[in-house]
């Protein structure tokens, strides 16, 4: 398999490493990145070479692992370099699936969203198989072989879920971090410890990724409005909101140990 990874950050290098390790046959990997030094470092670390946008090299599959604001342009730039399949791990699906169909109508097209930071792999991977085929099936098999749980969804279902799972969650956690004051360890409760641990996870990553998520998916305003409603509530209203929060909490699978989404 001739694999091109556009975007040599953590998610792109995770994808290249995983597919190369788990694919049944040999995988030749090329990296492209707006930062040429980062592409070169990825190629040296993971084995492979670098290419630039003017390359004449052809690939069986290209994976776009670029920031959300750049992914539609990356589809247009790189769709012509693939012979068989175009995939992405950008984290948004409706606009990307549409862009891939527009610019690569005759190729296999699958959108993946690993719902974890690479350091926490393996985990759940959302999949929109818009135009699957044998090459993307090989990619899916490699990701599954690495221990990831792949599940199919639709672009609309995925992006709506991300409003809560990412945008609202991140806004709530970061708001706690901004509002919290330093407290001696002896005062902490299990809840405050758990929330502090989540805050450490969120703030231990690239802030640009979180900014992209907030600008792509709605959520922060809803969290702010809910916090204001709690702040303004009297005792009776607070009890009503408390019970409402318990009823509305997102369903989760306690056996799922995936943590933080990232690229």
Describe it for me?
Strand 2, helix 2 (36-46) and strand 3 (49-50) form a beta-alpha-beta unit. The protein is elongated. Helix 1 (10-22) crosses helix 5 (134-145), helix 3 (71-78) runs parallel beside helix 4 (94-103) and helix 6 (155-179) crosses helix 9. The longest helix has 25 residues, at 155-179. The chain has helices spanning 10-22, 36-46, 71-78, 94-103, 134-145, 155-179, 190-203, 207-216, 220-232, 235-248, and strands spanning 2-6, 28-32, 49-50, 59-64, 82-88, 108-114, 124-131, 149-152. An 8-stranded mixed sheet has the order 3-2-1-4-5-6-7-8, sandwiched between helices. It is α/β, with parallel strands linked by helices. The model is unreliable at 254-263 (pLDDT under 50). It has 10 helices and 8 strands. The protein has 2 domains: 2-153, Rossmann fold; 157-248. Helix content is 49%, strand content 17%.
What average pLDDT do the residues reach? Answer: 93
Are there runs of 5+ residues with pLDDT below 50, and where? 254-263
Bulk shape: elongated
Number of domains: 2
Q: With helices defined by DSSP (H or I, 4 residues minimum), what is the helix count?
A: 10
Which range does the strand content fall in? 15-25%
Structural class, judged by helices and strands?
alpha/beta
Quote the CATH topology of the largest domain. Answer: Rossmann fold
Pattern of helices and strands:
EHEHEEHEHEEHEHHHHH
CATH class of the largest domain: Alpha Beta
Main β sheet profile: 8 strands, mixed
Query: How much is the radius of gyration in Å?
Result: 20 Å
Helix % is 40-55%
CATH level-two architecture of the largest domain: 3-Layer(aba) Sandwich
Distance between the termini: 23 Å
Strand order of the largest sheet: 3-2-1-4-5-6-7-8
The CATH superfamily of the largest domain bears the name: NAD(P)-binding Rossmann-like Domain
Give a count of the beta strands, DSSP E runs of length 2 or more: 8
